## 1
Amino acid sequence: MKGIVFNLLEQSVVADHGEDVWEELLDVSCLDGVYTSLGSYPDEDLFALVGAAASVLEVRSDDVVRWFGQRSLPLFAERYPQLFSRHVDARSFVLTLNEIIHPEVRKLYPGAIVPEFGFDTSDADWLGMDYYSPRKLCAFAEGLLIGAGEHYGQTVTIDQPQCMNRGDRECRMNIRFSRTR
Amino acid sequence: MSDEYSLQPYALTELPEIQARVDRLERQLRRQRLARQEAERISERATRELYDKQQGLVLLETVATAANEATGIEPAIATSLEAIRAHASWRLGHLWLRDRADEMVSTDVWAGDTDRHAPFCEASRGLRFGPGVGLPGRVLKDGRAVWMSDPAGLMSLPRDDAMRAAQLRTALCFPLLAGPDVVGALEFFADSVLEPDLELLALMSQAGTQLGRVVERQRAAEALVHQATHDALTGLPNRVLILDLLKRSLARQSRADGERTAVFFVDLDGFKAINDTLGHAAGDRLLSEVAARLSRVIRCEDTLGRLGGDEFVIVCEALTDEYPVVMIADRLGVSLREPFTLDGEQFLVSASIGIALADGSEEPGALIEQADAAMYRSKELGRARYEFFSDALRERIAHRLELESALRHAIARGELRLHYQPEVDLHTGAIVGVEALLRWQRPEALVTPGEFIGLAEDTGLIVPIGTWVLTEALRQLAAWENDAAIATSPWMSVNLSVRQLSDPELIPRVTAALEHRCADPARLLLEVTESVVLDDAEAGLSVLTALRCLGTEIGIDDFGTGYASLSYLRRFPASVVKVDRSFIAELGNDHRARAIVEAIVTMSRSLGLKIVAEGIETAQQLRIVRELGFDIGQGYLFARPGSAADIGRLLGNATAFGSLLGPVARDETESAHSRAALAR
């Protein structure tokens, strides 16, 4: 897992729950918390931190991940504004994941494992999105989608008829974006 | 003291201080965090730049490898086109090439998802843009990349509807450059709005130069092949390409039942005269114009080529019946009917056409030879017409081949004979000369000169035959000189052909023949036609001058039929002019013929040339040529060519034909004068 993910998680936790909670999560997970965006760290560290947050904050793990995704998006927008400024709505932004955003990720982090997305754009009202990743972090993607909607002033409704966490081969999300405000 | 402090809890008064310390530490922590993030950003930027640079290098390497390994323009560029498209994540890439008309032409080389964008690809098919028109046209005009995106930029483009329908919203087009010249362009399309990427543009500029070299190199190679397979003057396919085309066509014909291939052999009538009169530059212009006219009347599937000189070939493939052949032959003739204007003057040019139809078994070369033979038949039958190669023609060719083979052995078999025709002094009636005329007596029949002299010329056999003629004529001359019954032996006229004059051994041969018989060179009159100096004036004149230096006389035979102007006469080292029999034949009927002959006589006299009338057949012709002031006459009226024995008997009579001349003659002074001029 790339260090940036840990940095964003720390930033999100500190912003919403304070420094002490982050310290507590590290203590509970027995981690030293030294993460830099330039490094890569074990996936288990992230899952341990998510697990600790679920127990400390008394929420479900996938809710933690979803919340984390939603909170990360504005932080991404802050770091990489040029990826967002080309678009006027979330749908068109999301559609550049495979061709622009992930290639950019690979530029920074050679060998980064990024999820694969498949898009179904046959209907203008909703966007079909297939998600596949061995990390099965579809909830993170969901949170990012909601965050993207917020970035462009849209409400996002996601229906997930298939999920890897429920034993499907890949996750399927049918996404509706409200009109931009 | 410190121990005391350290053991005691903080006093309340110290709390603000502690708070300040915590604040400071938090500020430090924030600073450290920001510093870390700043360091990460710098590092990320460097990483990204390095990555982009590396990818750029990889791309350029791909392009360079494709450029070096490719065997053609399109394969080389197809590989690079896809590499560039993938590198920049564009939807579509497309190649345009500049053509000879300086327009950008759409190719079928695409990269990307062409299935999804099939309508757009279709809309681009067959397009050509002049400078300034469309993306490629703008690149052609400015030699620079063009980057355009929705909505304003793309609106003005010729394909904007197709682009909108394909949801393509950004277009990039950059030139393939060979030096400063735009030789092609690559265009790319994206389905989102993208801002110009300077790094990408810099990369494209390098790729454009690499690929421009490929185009240039390939074009140079194509130009070489074109040069080797096309005629430089007209740009038409040459013999090499025509033979190749025929080979393929005949191979196809052998597979496709009922389809035939036809070859036209087109040879201009009288082209040589125009070339000789106006010079090669005008001749070349005429050939170009002829090529243009011929190409306008053939069908688009036919091929016109030039074999060289004034010989053109047309190949018609996949014919199912002969109608198009006749139609094309007619149209070819009609196309030349309008006069050609050269150097401000109008000229009429016709063509003799031979047509050969392949029956499926011919070699390409043989088919052209058949068409050539049919063309010769057209010439024989009066020019400005067409003839098909036929079984009869095949037999004629076979006959000719048989004749050629026999002619090769004619000397050794002793089948050649010389006959002699008297040349008569028109003042005294005395035989002053004889012209040696070649006869071929084959065991089965006498072959006329018309049948075999041309063949001897074409095959080069004229050289050994000519040597034999010279030797035999000089032998006969010596025999007459030693004949006590002959008071004054005549001079001997011997014809030399153009082919003999270009024989480098001619001078030694003549010298040897004269020495062998101890003959007086002044008794030998070598006759050449005007065409000798028309083909290569300087070379012809220098050989004649050398012959003159040997002491022989030079005569111009058949004068008036060639195209030499009278001014040529001045440079000719000749002492005798023989006016062609066609003028003599017309003298009684055609006052224009008479005017021409008068001019020739006047001119010849002023140059001190002796003038001979050939082909005198009637008393009226004799009267007129004497009135016009001819010195010497020759023709059936006096004597037909005869054997040495027959002519020897005539030579015994000093004024053999005096009775024919009547009262006008008998001017001994004039006659003595003319003999002196000849002996000069």
Note: Chain A has a mean pLDDT of 90.
## 2
Amino acid sequence: MNFAVIVFPGSNCDTDLFHAIKDVLGEKVEYVSHQEHDLEGFDAVLLPGGFSYGDYLRSGSIASFANIMPAIKDFAELGKPVLGICNGFQILLESGLLPGAMKRNAGLKFICESTPLTVEHNETMFTNEYEMDERINLPIAHADGNYECDDDTLARLEANHQIVFKYDDNPNGSKANIAGIVNERGNVLGMMPHPERAVEALLGNDDGLRLFQSILVNWREHHAVTS
Amino acid sequence: MVKVKVYVTLKEGVLDPQGKAVEQALLAKDFKGVSDMRIGKYMEFYMDRDDHSDRNIQSMCKQLLANPVIEDYRYETEEVVHQ
């Protein structure tokens, strides 16, 4: 499987993602500049965390107009996996690939800590290796992670089982404790917690690894090797 | 030239954590009667007279300057003569 890690000016979790895919998951991965226009040959697209364009105007707002974004939208239209983590989630919101928006954390502080989550939905291409309602811990590191949407949108997210991760102990004021959501089709996931920072037990936590394994398992199911 | 001034604030009904904190700080400093503090953004720029239109500015606000999911915007324009 071939993963693309999109690199925007100000991305700073791109190397962690690259390492998680190449060295831990053991799959192919390439960096793709925000200036590129196509994603030919890739099976999954990862938008890393960081502070693209210095978070100017709003987190993710400038990056959502990057050259690569139309290609990411086309990629998502094809039903292929797109994962946005932290700033990547903010970019997916700003670009309209996911509903809602981020506000400043309710406590106004930048929060950097491990946080307990519940897997609300394990039948997605991103969470099939988790148990339903499984409790996991993943690191968060953000100032603008206070998820907001109107009540109609929230009702739709709930009705369509689009809420994938919820905070157990809401650290940032997010509506309905939302930590991660997918689009209606289920192939675009945005989440504030960082699974790529939790892929090795030796480094303290590997709760995030199964997210990447889930993507791989799903891909293999749809691309059964014929010999 | 036309000078455009754009004001962006969180929508009514959307909790504004920064506004709340600053309001509390004012009250703590004994400024009485302060309520509903909203913190927003102010942007100003110039446009050529020929390029400027309400439709154009509204489109800028909707597409980039404000996020319509959580923010409202308003703007003012004034004619200016550049030196």
Note: Chain A touches chain B at residues 57-58, 61, 65, 93-94, 99-101, 103-108, 146, 148-150, 173 (CB under 8 Å).
